[in-house]
Amino acid sequence: MSAVYDCRTPADREEGLAAAANTVRAGGLVVLPTDTVYGIGADAFDATAVHALLAAKGRGPDMPVPVLVGSWSTVDGLVMSVPQQARALIEAFWPGGLSLVLPQAPSLNWDLGNTRGTVNLRMPLHPVALDLLREVGPMAVSSANRTGQPPASTVAEAREQLGDSVQVYLDGGPSGEPVASTIIDLTQGWPRVLREGAVSLSEVSEVLGEDVEADR
Q1: How is 30-48 classified by DSSP, letter by letter?
Q2: How far, in Å, CA of 91 to CA of 108, rounded?
Q3: 3 state SS of 154
Q4: pLDDT tens profile 107-157
Q5: Locate the YrdC-like domain: which residues (predicted)?
Q6: From CA 57, how far away is CA 40, in angstroms rounded?
Q7: Which domains are present in the chain?
Q8: Does the N-terminal peptide bond of residue 95 adopt cis geometry, omega within 30 degrees of 0?
Q9: Are the C-beta atoms of 146 and 3 separated by less than 8 Å?
């Protein structure tokens, strides 16, 4: 049976974060609120847990799982290098609705799917998510829904779709308008927009000092 914790009350939040951290360390799955939509997460370095996450969503490794981090500094240990463009975007939009695709550090022993040597990183702007990430480290997190179904903007919607495949649900209240993060690929030496979302391309262009347009 899964457990639901209302993180809008201090006692439940503390208990829920402890339960979620223990679950992640034990290789289980948790649902957590973020600043975009609810996410289903696992220890990024536990391949079995990541495979369970994909199975819960009903999707395969062809759609790799993004990684959420709890601080800027965490990124340096996960990627081959952090180019100046990435640092500028991190300083401007993290924590927030911008995801960056960068070449992963070759020494990392993880299996996030068919990443082709890259990793999709984001630092969410949500206190519950940040508290959990700072406790357990980087997490593989995807939207908390079955593939093909709408992303969950409440714990109830996530639980209806994912059920007991998830051990702990952290309820942070409605996420508001379910807007996905903007994804910028910086693996080719220039910014490539994979998805426009919470951060506008004009905002990205202003920070980078060059026009950034979505792929056509």
Answers
A1: EEE--SSS-EEEEETT-HH
A2: 25
A3: coil
A4: 888 999 888 899 999 999 999 999 999 999 999 999 999 999 999 999 999
A5: 14-199
A6: 9
A7: 3-208 (3.90.870.10)
A8: yes
A9: no
